[in-house]
Specification:
The protein has 922 residues and is α/β, with parallel strands linked by helices. It is built from 35 helices and 25 strands.
């Protein structure tokens, strides 16, 4: 269950009559416990509680100890739960006691407590989210209102669509979304005095609607009509007296059709409940992302999970321009002239998000700018001064109409809240209505629109242009910038979409930008289009851009396709956040591994690299250059090499059968061959990546011209060989067809220079991104490495120490890239290019010992599989220590000490690679 579903479930529980015997089980059900789990608790099988109250208690191991107690005994019951040794023994995270009137609970780990009326405990649902396996971040706890509001709006939305199915069709979806945006404004306005009377909207709808809700749509329609009618035209409009109490809002929000979907009695009740919330608590920067999911069928199942947290947004905005503004504020001190100059500069700044969604980045940028301006005004003794920062300087493009509408509404709400904070309620109200009718959030396809038209670098006029008539938002007004000639900052979190995930329209979007400019563009992520559009924008004006992106555009094959185009426009990478997890909730991890890349056409700026240190803290380093791999190094591109450039042994794929699956077999299929004693040598262990990592048993026929004659005496073997022959004859590939002449043998046989039976190293082609090292290993004597893995056939043991190191892993992750999220190994890109210093005999001996230490640590846990041993949550301490020792030995060879973080590792490796390739080419 997600946070919104949990909020809904506990809200429904609080609304029901209190049943003390049933409450503990209903509470746990609301937090996602399955029926079978509840059944075992009811039966006593898993209930560890010995609470002596009339209804007993429920103690769920590693979760909660809770009890329904006698009236007035809540505090006493909670103290008893806290003191109960079973609570500690069962490692309960929470204790909770309630009598149906009051409720108290405690987080045993943090000591945090809540005490409230029973009917109000849903207000504290965020406190209990760990019960559902959700490790809440601070922002979730602080945005409890936004989740509650989203939950209620979702219930209303679903109920209205059920009663008005035509409003859920594609033809009317925009009407439904516009209606929801109007409701949100009304709820906010009635709780913030924008409407003169408290709860004016909700109370009017409740009072004027029939009990069955049959006329609710007419009541709301008249209210909407009133808010679109200027005061001077009210008499002519012949509004009902009760509707005439609503102010003129304008702003395009209530213009056009006032049609409203029909309400059932249940829908009308939901509307009333939503109005009962305290909408002064709304966070427009978070709420927008949540509410857009209400209207999106694909996102509704994960409501509340996909908002972008404020700290993550600031990772983009701070280095993009906010840090610079704060530094200038600090330097200005109390100098009124310098403060005035900074304020004038800020008034001209344009922030442009060409993938704005519901406006998160724009809202945060606006609020942060207002905070800086407020401090300027305070220092100048002008605390009540009206803001000089125009809302229309915050531009966006968004493909979905509802998200674009919510973005504009979120900015309007943010402006009002800032006015209240910095100037007071009276001044904010005096200037809020009517709303500005201009719509500065453009609804359209950002990769087809002309950004220079949406956010022009000079002049104030805006004219929308698109390269496709049908993509041009012709129904939107042209908007003037309030101030001329300012700086432009482009930012956002565009859709990622790997090459294989793009639909035909998205592939065409990328093609329009890249085709004719580079080869291989079809393998680019969708987000690459935003980077090149930003670089093209920067050809015409001073601009700095920064986007969140999957780290794949700075790894592997995409690097030499995308980044030369960007650098050719005169842009440099001005700052970068190296890979980190863009996550929202730990158990519903909507995040991916991302980077933040800032590009600028101002080449004199100081470049900055932000990276995660070993202790998890963000480390900042000022550098001379940042290359396309986000490494402080020269602009170099790692190219594949057919041979090792580092003097290391050759690595190759394992042997390739091209057999239709008939030369390989499972253990049972091996038994079915009924091999005689002298035939067992015809079948050998056959190991690829999956077999090696998961410990699976697989075998293969391993024959040559001589042994095949003897093997054919076994009818089962002969039958398999014949099937191989038939398979190869039908192949469309000439080499495979030719191999039909020797159907008993693999098409590509690789054993190295050593005699048959030597033990090779095996290197999986793909491995989990959660592992801290590549799980290289040595196979048993006589094992055959399949072509689903790489192998070193003629390598000394110290080579294993190189492959198993953190140094090698970060090199592979950077230059080879990934498949989905897994590391993808390449011999030509990763092994042959890996920079290795000149090693002494002692170095080799030390590395050999380190590799032996890893093998011995693994052996101590036989028969655990590689998958078991390298699970980051379960990795044995001695194996972890062996790898740590291996890293220390190797890294001291490179620089005489341990590297501080992966950025420093890559910096050294790229320095060495540059020297190595320069030497080779010379």
């Amino acid at each position: 269950m997600n946070a919104v579903e949990i909020e809904q479930a506990i809200s429904e529980l609080a609304e029901q009559p209190f049943d003390p015997a049933e409450f503990p089980y209903a509470f746990l059900t609301a937090f996602g416990n399955k029926d079978t789990t509840i059944k075992r608790l009811r039966s006593g099988g898993t209930n560890k509680s010995d609470f002596a109250g009339p209804w007993g208690g429920v103690l769920q191991t590693n979760n909660i100890h809770l009890v329904a107690c006698a009236p007035g005994a809540v505090a006493e019951a909670l103290a008893a739960l806290r003191a109960n040794p079973l609570t500690t023994r069962a490692k309960a995270k929470f204790i909770l006691a309630t009598d149906g009137l009051e409720l108290e609970a405690e987080d045993i780990t943090s000591g945090e407590t809540i005490a409230c009326r029973y009917v109000d405990f849903p207000d504290h649902f965020g406190f209990f989210l760990p019960l559902a396996g959700i490790s809440t971040v601070k922002q979730i706890r602080e945005s409890a209102f936004d989740i509650r509001a989203t939950s209620r709006l979702n219930r209303l939305y679903v109920e209205l669509i059920k009663d008005n199915p035509d409003w859920g069709s594609s033809d009317r979806r925009d009407d439904m979304n516009h209606f929801m945006a109007r409701l949100i404004f009304c709820f906010f306005a009635e709780d913030t005095d924008i409407f003169a009377t408290e709860r004016l909207f909700t109370a009017t709808v409740d009072r004027m609607s029939d009990r069955d809700g049959a006329n609710t749509h007419k009541v709301i329609g008249e209210i909407f009509r009133a808010m679109s009618t200027p005061i001077a035209k009210r008499a002519e409009a012949k509004l009902p007296r009760w509707a005439d109490a609503f102010p003129y809002v304008n702003g395009g929000l209530f213009s056009g059709s006032t049609e409203v979907p029909r309400f059932s009695k249940i829908a009308q009740r939901y509307l009333s409940h939503i109005g009962g919330l305290d909408w002064t608590q709304i966070n427009p920067d978070i709420f927008g992302s949540m509410i857009q999911a209400v209207a999106d069928e694909e996102e509704r199942s994960v409501l509340g999970m996909h908002y972008t947290s404020v700290p993550n947004i600031l990772k983009v905005l701070n280095p993009l321009f906010l840090d610079d503004l704060r530094a200038e504020l600090e330097a200005a001190g109390d100098n009124t002239r310098k403060l005035a100059n900074l304020r004038a500069r800020m008034a001209r700044i344009r922030v442009f998000d060409p993938a704005c969604g519901s406006g998160n980045f724009l809202v945060i940028a606006y609020k942060e700018m207002r905070a800086i301006e407020a401090e300027i005004n305070r220092r100048r003794g002008e605390a009540d001064r009206r803001t000089d920062i125009p809302l229309t300087n915050y531009r966006g493009i968004e493909l979905r109409s509802f998200s674009a509408e919510i973005a504009r509404l979120a900015l309007i709400i943010a402006e009002y809240q800032c006015d209240v904070t910095y100037r007071g309620q009276k001044e904010a109200l005096a200037e809020f209505l009517p709303l500005d009718a201009q719509n500065w959030i453009t609804c359209g396809n950002a990769l087809r629109l002309d950004w220079l038209s949406v956010c022009p670098p000079t002049g104030t006029g805006v004219k929308f242009q698109a390269d496709d008539l049908f993509m041009s938002p012709l129904d939107q007004a042209q908007i003037d910038f309030a101030n001329e000639g300012g700086e432009t900052y482009i930012c956002g979190n565009p859709p990622y979409k790997g090459a294989s995930e793009q639909d035909l329209n998205q592939k065409e979007d990328i093609g329009r930008i890249f085709e004719g400019r580079c080869k291989g563009w079809k393998s680019l992520d969708y987000v690459a289009g935003w980077f090149l559009k930003a670089a093209d924008y920067g050809l015409h004006t001073k601009a700095v851009s920064a986007f969140v992106s999957t780290n794949s555009i700075c790894q592997g094959q995409q690097v030499p396709i995308l980044w030369p185009l960007i650098f050719q426009t005169g842009h440099i990478i001005s700052f970068a956040h190296t890979s980190f997890r863009w996550a929202n909730l730990a158990s519903h991890n909507a995040g991916v591994t991302v980077v933040i890349v800032g590009i600028s056409n101002e080449t004199s700026v100081t470049r900055k690299v932000y990276s995660l240190a070993e202790d998890g803290q963000v480390a900042l380093k000022s550098v001379e250059n940042i290359n396309a791999y986000l490494v402080p190094s020269q602009n170099v591109y790692v190219s594949s090499s057919s041979r090792p450039l580092n003097g290391l042994p050759s690595m190759d794929y394992g042997s390739k059968p091209a057999d239709g699956g008939y030369l390989s077999m499972s253990l049972q299929e091996k038994h079915d061959l009924h091999l005689t004693d002298d035939q067992h040598g015809f079948v050998l262990p056959y190991i690829g990546s999956a077999e090696y990592i998961d410990g699976k048993q697989r075998f293969c026929l391993w024959l040559n011209a001589d042994s095949a004659k003897k093997a054919m005496a076994n009818a089962a073997i002969a039958a398999r060989v014949e099937r191989v022959r038939q398979f190869r004859q039908k192949s469309t590939k000439r080499p495979t067809q030719e191999a039909a002449a020797t159907p008993f043998a693999f098409v590509e046989v690789r054993y190295g220079k050593r005699e048959k039976g030597a033990a090779p190293f095996i290197i999986p082609i793909h491995t989990s991104e959660n592992r801290q090292s590549l799980p290289v290993g040595i196979l048993p004597l006589g094992a055959v490495v399949s072509n689903a893995a790489f192998a070193l056939y003629d390598a000394p043991l110290w080579n294993m120490a190189l492959i198993a190191s953190r140094l090698h892993l970060v090199w592979i992750a950077t230059v080879c890239g990934k498949l989905e999220t897994r590391y993808r190994y390449s011999n030509t890109m990763g092994w042959n290019t890996f920079p290795v210093p000149k090693l002494t005999e002692k170095n080799r001996a030390d590395l050999t010992a380190a590799a032996e230490g890893i093998l011995l640590a693994r052996e101590a846990h036989f028969p655990a599989t590689i998958a078991d041993l390298y699970d980051p949550e379960k990795m044995p301490a001695n194996l972890r220590a062996a790898h740590d020792h291996n890293d220390e030995v190797l890294e001291r060879i490179y620089i005489g000490r341990r590297f501080r973080n992966d950025t420093e590792r890559l910096e050294k490796l790229f320095e060495m690679y540059t020297k190595m390739t320069t030497k080779v080419s010379a």
